Every structure is written in structure tokens, then in C-alpha cells.
């Protein structure tokens, strides 16, 4: 995907320039491309007369043709004018590159002039210049163009591509030249301005992101600084008339190199998760050392100093790129390695174009002003995309963490409730045992004394009954479980004994097999009291001569049926079964055990009491 976008950028940015170059070599109907001129070096304000002229081919790059020369140099070229003179017609002269101050004369009349010493005078280093040629000055035959060019020597320039020189000249009607050159003009002007502004905005945004999280996103801050510096380097492409002296501009342009290298190298290292202490000191120090060196050495050796520092800085960025690629390769992140490689190519390309390449072809400058910043912009957009994906992942992880925290919180609260309940159970159990011990040691001893020392049979009997009830309560308080088989034996002995004393025949039916189930102490106590209450009612109220008891375990329930052949419950009492004869207490005790106690009775048919106690529920309730 990245490769496709890069090819698209190359096609969009270079394609129009190639087509323009082809069209410039295949002239339109009246468009002339002038590739040779007569030259003479002279400070004369007009084209010099009586001097030796020589013919040169255009483009004429001064570092090749006159390495030590600064001009002024006069160029004279001729072209055929319009077939019919039109005073209102407008022709134009298109100069692809001159990178110097230039005054232009058409048929002896000055049509363009530039003041000396300004950056605007060298604005044609970065793109073409178009000069209007009024139709009133054109003649139908041969027309003469004289150009007076004054430039700065190479030693005082920051880079080779800013050296003076005159490119081929294109002359023709404005409409035809604009049609042939309009795509390139748009790229040189509007695109450069848009690219510079976009890189500046991108840089400020990424620097803000990096400053917010310096430990995690420091690479974004350095890439933002790189984008800002690159945007500043593009300013001359769309703003040629900066109010700066040419020497000051060259100094500022050279001073921008260490900033670019610092930002690029630190981005490569930090993006790979590496931090080199030496680089943290040397790279920012160079941002001060390079301008200082240029100031100390002076403008006369500007080019040599700039070339030296450009090479040193390029090697530093290359070392950072190698470390970046090595780290990304080891961490199995090929996508990040591709981004690092692209950034290294950007830096290498800028070094070759602005400091190492020695050609007058404007396509190289076009690549530096269009393709490389576009790749830089693409890398920045990729970083923003990665940042967005990281934020989305962080939001997802945060939601998961919040969910997990809520689950852990609920689990802790549940555990706390269980611990609280367990603590209550432990305290309650301890208190039960204390009360049971007190009852057994104090009240039990006193009741037992009354049983053995009382002279009244009735008092002795009541004391014995109270002692049995107290022992039953103590047994329930101690919490010791009772085997169901043992409990049935105790109940059978007590029921048969009490019914026998009352003269009632007792029949007890129970399972013959072993009963391994156990009853908690509380369940045993409640069931015992239900059985006692039922036996009391039979003895006191039924008038029965026989009582049958059946018990069994079925479907996890303990089932007990007590049936007598007495007179049953009268109609008056039947209407208030829940209030009379302790029936309500029996039902309440059964309900506490998650069971039920049903009473079936009718006059003359006796009474049937059905008790059902779930063994598991009884264990949980106790």
C-alpha cells in the first residue's frame, strides 16, 4: 500500500515536469526554445560593444564555466517574433533557472530589473521565472534578448544547487507558454506553499502529542520538529521575496542542517525504542556548533564548511538509520523498518540534491521540493494512524480493565460478605456453646438436685421433664450432628414409653436398611419437639387406644406419619387448627426446616399428622 502511494506521488509530481520538458523540446507553433547564447563579462549597464563574444550552450552552470566568477555576465540570444505585429499581444520569457540577479532587455529596452543583494534576486534557484515581453517591443523579424546576470561565488553559498547559472530560455505567446508550463507552475508555486503549510501543521500537532507523553511518544515530538524544519526549508519555493540579505539567507539555510539531522536521528532512535546518551548531547550541541563555525570561518568559505557539516550530519543520520533498522529487524516489525528506511532515503536524497548533486537540471530541485516532503508527509500520516490505533487499543484495554476491576470488586465484596457471615456464624456458634455450657453446668445441676431431693412426686416429675427439655436444648446448641438411625431410635423409645404410660398401644414402623444420613443438631431438636407435641396431643385430646408411627427416607426427604384411632378433631376446633393444640408451633418448626407438617382429621376417624423434612435443606438451615 505504501509503495502504491509513493508511485502515485512520483507520477503526480514528476509527470507534469517531464511532460513540460518534452513539450519545451517540441515547441508549439510560435514557442522558441533558446539553447545557445553569446556571452561577455562586463560591468556595463548595457550590452557591451567592441568586446570579444563567445558562444555557450544553455544551460550554462557557472561552477563549471567560470568557477571563480561572480559576474556580471551578459547573455545575448535571438528569436523570431510574431508574424503580424499586435500592439496588445503579450509574449513571455520563461527561465527555468538562473539563481542570480538578472536584468532583461528586449530589443534594447529594459523589461525586467532586480535590486542587488536580496534573496529575491536568487529566487529562481527553486523554480522557474516568467517575464512579460510586451508586444509593442516585438518585431516581426529577429528579436534580441539581452540578460545581465550577477551572482554570488560558490564559496559563499550553502549548497551546490544554489550556484548561479542560466538555463535554456523559452519564448513565445503567453497563452501557449502557459498551456505548456501550467502544471509545472502550479507545482512550483501552490504545491510548495501547501506542502510547507501542511508540514508545519503536522509538525506542531505531532510535537504536541510527543510533549504530552515524553516517555512513550518522544519520537512523535522529534518527527514534528523534523516536519517543521522541512516546512521552513520549503519557504523559498513559494515566498521568493523574503526581506533578508542573501548572505544572511545562506547562513540560515546552512544552520537549518543540524536541526534536520538532530530531529531525524533522534526520531529513528526513539521510534526503535533506543536512547543513546551520546546522541542526546552531541546532536543538540551541533545545532549551536554549526552556526558558530560558519560565523567564525566567515562567508568566504561558506560552501566548504556547509559541505563538510552536511557530510558529517548525513553520516550521523545514516548511523541512526542503521541502528533503527537493526532494532526493528530484531523485534520483527518490518513495517516500522520500512518507515525508517523511507526517512533515511529522505535525508539521503536531500543531502544529494542540496549538497552533493552537481547538475543544473531543475528536475533534481523539483524532486527535493516535492517528492521528498511528500514522503515525509506520508510517514507523518502513518505515525498519526499508528497513534490512533494505539489510542483505540488503549481505550479497549481500559474498558476491559474497568470490567475486570468491577468483577474483582464484586468478588471482593462477596468474599467480604461471606467472611462477615462466617464471622457471625463463628461468634454465634461460640455463644451457643457458652450458653449450652452454662445451662448444663448451672441449670442442669439444679434440676437434677430437685429431681433427687424433692419429696413431691409432681415437682420431681416436672423437674425431670424440664431437665430433659434442657438437655435437648443443650444438644441443639452444641451443634453436633446426629445420625438419622440414632435419632429414630431415640424417638421410638420415647414415643413408645410415653404412649405406654398413657395406656395407648404404640406401633412403630421404620426402614430395615441402614440409614447413613445425618441430621444437624438444630434439625434433630426441631423434629423431636414436633414429635413430642404430636404425642402430647394424642395423650391429652384424642382418646385413642392405638397410635401408629411410620417413617422412611424417599427422594432426599425424611417422611414421618403419626396416625391415631381417636375421636378426631371436633368441628369447632377444626376451624382453628393453626391456633389450637400446638399445631401452629408444629407447622412453624417444620417450616424452619424447609419442610411441611400436614394435619388430616375428622370426627370419628382419628387424626393423621404427616411431617416431611428435606434432609439437605435441614442441613443448610441448621
List the helices and strands and how they pair.
Layout: H1 2-25, E1 32-34, E2 36-41, E3 54-57, E4 60-61, H2 62-65, E5 73-80, E6 90-95, E7 101-106, E8 109-112, E9 129-134, E10 142-150, E11 165-166, E12 169-173, H3 174-212, H4 218-233, H5 235-238, H6 246-271, H7 277-297, H8 302-330, H9 334-356, H10 362-453, H11 457-478, E13 482-483, H12 484-501, E14 505-509, E15 518-519, H13 521-542, E16 546-554, E17 557-564, H14 571-574, H15 583-592, E18 596-602, E19 606-614, H16 615-621
Shape: rod-shaped
End-to-end CA span: 72 Å
**CATH homolog superfamily of the largest domain:** Galactose-binding domain-like
> Measured on Cα atoms, how large is the radius of gyration?
55 Å
| Average pLDDT over all residues | 77
CATH architecture of the largest domain: Sandwich
Write down how many β-strands occur, each being a DSSP E stretch of 2 or more residues: 19
**Sequence stretches where pLDDT stays below 50 over 5 or more residues:** 1-28, 117-122, 183-187, 617-622
Strand order of the largest sheet: 3-2-5-10-7-8
Classify the helix fraction into a percent range: 55-70%
How many helical elements? 16
The overall number of domains is: 2
Task: Quickly describe the structure.
The protein has 16 helices and 19 strands.
Give a verbal description of the structure.
The protein has helices at residues 2-25, 62-65, 174-212, 218-233, 235-238, 246-271, 277-297, 302-330, 334-356, 362-453, 457-478, 484-501, 521-542, 571-574, 583-592, 615-621, and strands at 32-34, 36-41, 54-57, 60-61, 73-80, 90-95, 101-106, 109-112, 129-134, 142-150, 165-166, 169-173, 482-483, 505-509, 518-519, 546-554, 557-564, 596-602, 606-614. By secondary structure, it is of the alpha+beta class. A six-stranded antiparallel sheet has the order 3-2-5-10-7-8, with no helix packed on it. A five-stranded mixed sheet has the order 14-16-17-19-18. Helix 6 (246-271) runs antiparallel to helix 7. The longest helix is centred in the middle third of the chain and has 92 residues, at 362-453.
